[in-house]
Amino acid sequence: MEQKMIKIKINDKEYQVPEGINIVEACDAYKIPLERFCYHRYLPVDGNCRTCMVEIETPRGRMLTIGCNTKVQEGMVIYTNSENAVRAQKASLEFLLLDHPLDCPICDKAGECYLQDNYYNFGRYDYRRIVPRYFKGGKAVDAGDHIVLDQERCILCTRCIRFLDNIPGTSELGIVHRGHVSKITTFPNKPIRNNYSGNITDICPVGALTLKEFRFKQRVWFLKKTPSVCTECARGCSIYIEHNRGKIWRFMPRENPKLNRAWICDKGRFSFKKNHENRVLEPIKDNQNIDFNHATIEIETILQNYSWNEIAWLCGPYSSNETLYILKTYYGDNVFAYIPPAKGHKDDLLMLAEEYPNEQGIRFFGINTDIKSLINKINNKQIKALFILENNFAKFNEAKELVDALKMLEKTVYFTSFQDETAKQVSLIIPIRTFAETNGTYINATSLLQKAEQAFEPENQDIVSLPLALAQIVYYLNKTQKRYSDPSEIFNEYKNQFPELKDYSFSNIPSMGIQLSLPKIADEPFKNKKVDFNVFMWNDYVSVTR
Amino acid sequence: MDFPLILTKRFNIQNNHRLEVALQHGAYSSLKKLFSMKPEEVVEEVKKSNIKGRGGAAFPTGVKWAFIPKDTKKPIYLCVNADESEPGTFTDRYVMEYDPHLLIEGIICSAYAIKSHVAYIYIRGEYVKQYKILNEALNEARQAGYIGKNILGSGFDLEVWIHRGAGAYICGEETGLIESIEGKKGQPRIKPPFPAVEGLFGCPTIVNNVKTIAQVPWIVENGGEAFAKIGTKESTGTNIFGVSGHVNNPGYWELPFGMHILEFLEKYAKGVKGGKLKALIPGGSSTPVLTAKECEDLYLTYESMRDHGTFLGTGGMIVMNEHTDMVKALRTLTRFYSEESCGQCTPCREGTSWLDRLLKRILAGEATTKELDLLIEISDNMEGRTICALAAACAMPVRSFVTKFRADFEKYVKPVSIPVSKVAEKIITHEPVA
Prior knowledge:
The complex is a heterodimer. By secondary structure, chain A is α+β, with helices and mostly antiparallel strands. Chain A is built from 13 helices and 23 strands. In chain A, α2 (83-97) crosses α3 (114-122), α8 (321-330) packs parallel to α12 (466-476) and α8 packs across α13 (487-494). Chain A is elongated. Chain A starts with a strand and ends in a 31-residue tail after the last strand. The model of chain A is unreliable at 536-546 (pLDDT under 50). By secondary structure, chain B is an alpha/beta fold.
């Protein structure tokens, strides 16, 4: 859908913007600084913080107005830096800071606090409160399973209230009292308990709402952000991995108007811990740690002792497209994919029952999902060695037949990152990198191809990523002469086979992902949740708001 | 002076709140003519009358009614603002107390004009007696067929509900009132959309003051032009003016616009008590205060008030004599506004309380002259930057009190050499740091 473009003037310069957006969005698009607290692109406009004050030309002269509730019109003349506008902006900041505690050094939001940032950029520095501060109280209130509320730091922008009212629809938070004593609170004994509660800490512009799982764990300025994809369900929400020194400290939603807007579910958010739990860091043979050279010899032995037809490769919807491409291209007929039952929690917003990231990739590359025939082949002794590729099927009761069939095999090798149920059933375990430790692409349920970039090196740097290990195996067997040093090279190779991907390379896959024409296996996110927002569908789309 | 009484004509009749008594004295007499007119004609008459909203904002009522989208398919609502809580204002209550049927008649006329079939009377929670009287009158009117289906065989349906407030001043603001009727916390809505387009339950809504509505039957009966002849050219019709404070005879009187204010105080309020006139708040506490000198050429009209930098507001005057301590008087007002700010938008929530705390400090004798400048600057930063007018309602008296009666304030404060306003003038460049 083509948006009609109109001409407006901001600070005496002409700009073209789409019709129907508001002044804040117009300023964001051209990176004209305009502070705001209560406005959020994916929430209804409330206009209570009064900091995005601009002056517009009207027939009755210049008028002060808020940018977030004023739609741009053809020929509108806007001033964000006129004397009156700047004075109003500074005044609002001064009001907001009036009773706000000035304890940034011990506040967990410091470094990503709107009040800090805006004051640094726009504030007035001469202090003149003079009168004693009003102490609102309410420090470190336990507001829910994951949330800690600090009423004293709250600036009453109601972002959290609007989020809970509009997105999960649970409305746990509200404002009590009126005037300067009003504060955000939950109903007595009704904590914030929903699957999206973590988001309110992201959108909180100050340190009022913090996450139990993150607060006081790491200062935000130490964190590095790597764009990635959430692998907890087939929705594949866009996220940032925020990590420091090889450890993930949190997942944050990455804005994607086509997919998760600015939200992620709590299941995905708190899956960041998994990356460091129960890791396999060295190859294990019969419960004994062995070194990588030893493990390589073990694999070479298997490949030499059994003919190509006697070896099967079992992957799953957990692997990246690069793994699946290598398997499909070089590994012949004995490649199977086990798709686990969809048993997760499902809702109309983001969460899907399919708790794996790349089921669509299996369809895209056409991997055989007929597990029955694999089991038959194992039971008939046609297959004697099985390589299991990051697919923990043993935890599902539905896969009992397959688990039982493992006993019929002479050799079982498991490529995995974690010590899990399947790891107990196999003779040789080879560690591989997780999605955070390597480059890869995934196709979500609504057929959006996104990339997950490598955030950091694994604890043991000898560990390779699965597609590279598989590519190495076929190189060893002389099935190909190609060698890869990074999975992104694999993407750059296979993209030419698909017209939809041809124009991209791994490095320039857009942050919003590539929409494929593959049939979708789930509804679009946020069904029946029509939040009134305008999204720039511009090519140089940049996420500006948190 | 010869003028017809529009609002208070039946006030002196005993038991006028009973339907049979009111009917004997001409209540509901306008309905016959009303139903012979088209709704558009009624709106036209009201426009011609040039009646302005009596709630304080003085917005032309006919113009407001015309804002309703012509082709709307949604129901239209009429809300009667009887949440009279402005300090110094006490006139709507008497209309409801002494002539509730005039108000009901006005509701029928107004609802007919704007094609509304449901009307709400939002009555202040503290008005218990008025609520009981109005409720009784409404029941009588309903039984007599003035409210309900097919009123007097005209084919026009109207249901009227009374909604009681819970003691919040801000619910007198039209969108705050709408939120409160919807059962939410009384916090004004952000505009646009304006209530005439999207108001109560998301439908076009007209909110009018009690006195405005109660004057519509007279306009219907006598025509807009007759109404426009009363008063002055810009301020048409009559209004009930109330006087409280240091006067010998506080009370309320219905008068046409245009009387000299000192004449009014002499003739009706019987003069200022306990000394000479020092200050006058013309129309409820939110309007800027006037000095005795400014009152010398002040008339009870919208335009004269505007020329003096103040507003006629609700018409509830507060008179202060020469012994009044203006600092204490102002503190009373700021305490009220800081208490009643809904807390939604920043400048009002923080500003009202900041002003109040500063005045407390001034009264305690701890302040210096720079705090007086700060008071004015805070007021400037509050006014016109909020969702509703409460911030302005607090800022205007503060600014006018401090500038016009600075001598009073200076008695409390210690002098400083550099006024803070000079320090504050330092312009900090608007260059953001990347």
